[in-house]
Design a protein that fits this description.
There is one protein chain. This protein is mainly beta. It has two helices and 14 strands, in the order ααββββββββββββββ. The protein has a single domain, classed as Immunoglobulin-like, CATH 2.60.40. 26% of the residues are buried.
Length: 197
């Protein structure tokens, strides 16, 4: 009789251990997720391969783009977020091709593809070690995704276990401007965001 009780207890203990392991083990997506470095605005956030800082994030209902003497107005059913900053590679030349706006609720919005490439936005630039370069990120998001949002930048979304920098933006749904203009410059910096603050 004691042997049956011991066997039953051993089976129950093994089942409890297996149940605990099943419910506490990380998911595959967690194991292969990017290595995140986080920070706030106006601070340099460093990952192993690159560094990023975001100095401003502005929100507007209308986005005007001036390039080569032509002006185009972009409207949206949501709002436009224009973030400016600086990025720098640390050890080797690299490109940053993935930029997203992460809302407080966890929804991700990718960089807009509506603005012409003549503005020299990220992606498309090569970043060199020791040579910081200006970064312009433009997102089109619903108005309720603005408050508590985060700028997320990575080399690519295709490489697991790669660097990802997250910078919490200091914007709220009350900071919406009627319009922002991005003007292409012929010299450095490659653009100006108007009206200037």
């Amino acid at each position: 009789m004691m042997r049956i009780v011991r066997s039953a207890l051993a089976i129950l203990f093994a089942a409890a251990v297996l149940y605990g392991m099943q419910h506490t083990r990380p998911l595959y997506s967690d194991i292969t997720s990017p290595i995140v470095s986080s920070g706030g605005m106006n601070k340099r956030v460093e990952a192993s391969a690159f560094a990023l800082s975001v100095e401003s994030a502005r929100v507007a209902r209308v986005l005007n783009v001036e390039s080569f003497g032509k002006s185009k107005t972009y409207t949206s059913s949501g709002v436009w977020i224009v973030a400016e900053g600086e990025a720098e590679a640390k050890f080797q030349t690299l490109g940053l091709t993935s930029g997203e706006w992460l809302s407080r609720s966890g929804v991700r919005y990718v960089l807009t593809d509506r603005v012409p490439a003549t503005i020299d936005m990220m992606p498309g630039n090569a970043y060199q070690p020791g040579l910081p370069r200006r970064v312009l990120l433009v997102f089109e998001v619903p108005e309720d995704a603005v408050a508590g949002g985060t700028v997320v930048v990575a080399r690519t979304k295709l490489l697991p276990l790669d660097d990802e920098i997250r910078i919490t933006a200091d914007v709220s749904g009350k900071d919406i401007e009627p319009a922002i203009t991005i003007r292409r410059n012929e010299e450095s910096p490659p653009w100006t965001v108007l009206p200037q603050r």
